[in-house]
Amino acid sequence: MNNNYVVIMAGGVGSRFWPYSKQALPKQFHDVLGYGKTMFQDTVQRFKNIAPLQNIFVVTNKNYYQLVKKNIPELSDEQILLEPIGKNTAPCIAYACYKIAKVNPAANVVVTPSDAAIMQPSVYEGQILKAIQFASDKDVLVTLGINPTRPDTGYGYIKFDIRDKSPIKKVLKFTEKPTLEVAQKFIQSGDYVWNAGIFVWNVSAFIEAFELHMPALHHSFNDAKEYYFTPNEHTYITNIFNHCESISIDYALMEKAENVYVIPSDFGWSDVGTWKSVYELSAKDAQGNAVSGNVKTYNTTNCIIKTSNKTLTVVNGIDNCIIVEADGVLMICNANDEQYIKKIVDDIKNIENGKYI
Amino acid sequence: MNNNYVVIMAGGVGSRFWPYSKQALPKQFHDVLGYGKTMFQDTVQRFKNIAPLQNIFVVTNKNYYQLVKKNIPELSDEQILLEPIGKNTAPCIAYACYKIAKVNPAANVVVTPSDAAIMQPSVYEGQILKAIQFASDKDVLVTLGINPTRPDTGYGYIKFDIRDKSPIKKVLKFTEKPTLEVAQKFIQSGDYVWNAGIFVWNVSAFIEAFELHMPALHHSFNDAKEYYFTPNEHTYITNIFNHCESISIDYALMEKAENVYVIPSDFGWSDVGTWKSVYELSAKDAQGNAVSGNVKTYNTTNCIIKTSNKTLTVVNGIDNCIIVEADGVLMICNANDEQYIKKIVDDIKNIENGKYI
After folding, report:
1. How far apart are CA A10 and CA B106, in angstroms?
2. Measured distance CA(A160)–CA(A109) in Å, rounded
3. Cα–chain center distance at B116
């Protein structure tokens, strides 16, 4: 177990849950689903039987250092990797894996986002352990794919070899977010899974593949080896981040590598990317309202209402709305119009120097 | 002009505009329609060509003394009559009229609520002056009735003698709030007007009628004569109010007196009794929203939105709603369900000892 490491990506700044989540306190540091813990805490706890806490590394934006410490005080500063600037997932993951390789060249690494929900954590745990075993035995890159339940155009898809009868299947192709028509074909074909951004590999296999497909970035993070776990680490890393390209791990590595495998999985995964998904995963009252805060509802149905306890919120005769109040911002949105929230946030950004974002 | 006096009733505690107006700051002390002045200030200013300011008397709840002073600092304490307890309009009006009679037995008094809107104040002024002239000449009780525009069941109605061709007509009957069926008949008949609670009389005619129809209360306020404008006034008045019955001036006097006249009028009157009426009287944007506060609307129509400037309110994809935020309470109400607000306020009263009311 001591060869098992986890890299949790916690630097994201989502705007879809504005104003409930804002830049200063993004989604992963909220208890979005009312579990009594933040999504980040839930992510850390998911690995309690997989890796010791000292083997968990968090990569996050430098502004979220205090939030990470507050969420999991046991994490040492060595375990909190601070991105000076967001450059998508490839530099973020590479930084963590090269740093881990310095301390343990035989490390098996699980890479995961910190803002997804997993409703069956024990099933997840079993799949992760299976992936670690496979990756460690074979020097391959493994990903956990989610068996799709609908033709969602919000995810990337992974095509696997349908003739492969083993539970861990050879990946044929990574694809970007498809159109609805294409997504429907993917679902029908039966050989596609959703890309959940969960990866498992041995650091040596990762570095070998990264050197081949991203030679410049490989050299940067490899040359930084002598600075990892030293006082100069952040200065050196800042220099790399300031000059490297912004690129996803899918595009930088997974789409190009030949030795990629996927485990099609069902463990109640949701990226909790929309208010609709929050609504679906939340406990609801008899009228179908998912309510948290100091709220009284009358003749109100199918609403998601999340307010601070400072305000008494009274809702009368309303159906199918998203009502969110936090930190001096109130949003009332028809649930059918949630796709416009991103545009609204862009608009609000221009008010008073982004005061409300 | 110095014989003209005004009695403004400003003690009401409405719950219909909760949470915008609350017990601590009721409707008459709000700028409900966005005029740049409170409804009480608007009421006082309406009489600027009718009576000198020192002839304006305000009867209000003792808790609103500071509000009255803040609204019209020029009013002396002598002009602010404090009800120790609300006992409906008859004791309130009698108190003011008996007090005015002490200082000027020839006074002509206009009695008016302080929370109605009058869109054509110069027409109103003309009608009031006409009523004063008539009341002063004839020793009668005059009321200004509103020509009805719909079979509203929220008002009392006044039946006048349709054969009377003069503009000031003999009243045949005061009626309470009717059923819809009855109200429709009233409208069709052409000899009914709405009772707006606006009365004009000479104090001597008032006292004569009051003595006849409310002898006990007459004696109380008449016996108090020696205390008016003395330091003992409030103590004496408190005793009367604590022991007198709660009764409206309509029921106590107007329905019983024989010498009552009405001027059917059109001066853009509204009692502004519902959010619907606030909406109708307010300025609206191109999407039909009446908005005040720090508000951004997107794809939103026919809403009334009133918020404090402390909160940024974003409304997306909403139609026909009342959205009100004030002092730690937010209410979101389907405009078709506004009749339930009173019930909701009753329900909310039981939370935390009426903290939110």
Report:
1. 82
2. 22
3. 6
Give the pLDDT confidence of A241-268 residue by residue, as tens digits.
999 999 999 999 999 999 999 999 999 9
From residue B214, alpha-carbon distances to A208, B135, B156, B324 in Å are 103, 21, 21, 43
Please indicate if any CB of chain A lies within 8 Å of the CB of B356.
yes
Question: A37 — phi, psi (to 5°)?
Answer: -150, 155
Tell me the pLDDT tens digit for each residue of B80-133. Answer: 999 999 999 999 999 999 999 999 999 999 999 999 999 999 999 999 999 999
Q: What is the ipTM of this complex?
A: 0.84
pLDDT at B1 over 60: no
Joined together, the tokens standing for residue B72 give 């019209």
pTM for this model (two decimals): 0.86
Q: Do A316 and B340 touch (CB under 8 A)?
A: yes
- Contact criterion met (CB < 8 Å) for B296 and A348: yes
Give the angle B174-B177-B181 at the CA atoms, nearest 5°. Answer: 110
pLDDT one-digit tens code per residue, B248-298: 999 999 999 999 999 999 999 999 988 999 999 999 999 999 999 999 999
Asked if B332 lies within 8 A of A347 by C-beta distance, the reply is no
End-to-end CA distance of chain A: 42
Q: Cβ(A317)–Cβ(A300) under 8 Å?
A: yes
Residue A50, by phi and psi: left (phi above 0), alpha (psi -120 to 50) or beta? alpha
Question: What does the alpha-carbon distance between residue B253 and residue B90 come to, in Å, rounded to a whole number?
Answer: 8
Q: Are A5 and A107 in contact (CB under 8 A)?
A: yes
CA distance between the termini of chain B:
42
Say what the pLDDT of residue A343 is.
Answer: 92
CA distance A288 to B195: 45
Give start and end residues of each alpha helix (H) in chain B.
Answer: 39-45, 65-71, 89-103, 121-138, 180-189, 203-213, 215-223, 233-243, 249, 275-281, 341-349
Query: What whole-number distance in Å separates Cα of residue A93 and Cα of residue A105?
Result: 16
Contact A222, A127 (CB under 8 A): no
Nearest beta carbon to residue B314 from set A299, A310, A331: A331
**Residues found in chain B:** 357
Q: Annotate B185-213 with DSSP letters as a single string.
A: HHHHHS-EEEEEEEEEEEHHHHHHHHHHH
Whether the Cβ atoms of residue B29 and residue B79 lie closer than 8 Å to each other: no
CB distance from B354 to chain A under 8 Å?
Answer: no
Burial class (CB in 10 A: 0-12, 13-18, 19+), B237: buried
How many other C-beta atoms lie within 10 A of the C-beta of residue A179?
A: 10
Q: Which whole-number Å values give the CA distances from A210 to A87, A107, A207, A238, A249, in the listed order?
A: 16, 16, 5, 20, 10
Give me B225's structure tokens: 């004569």
Q: CB count, 10 Å around CB of B208?
A: 16
The residue among A313, A327, A330 with the most chain B CBs within 10 A of its CB, best to mutate, is: A330
Residue whose token pair is 């799709």: A148
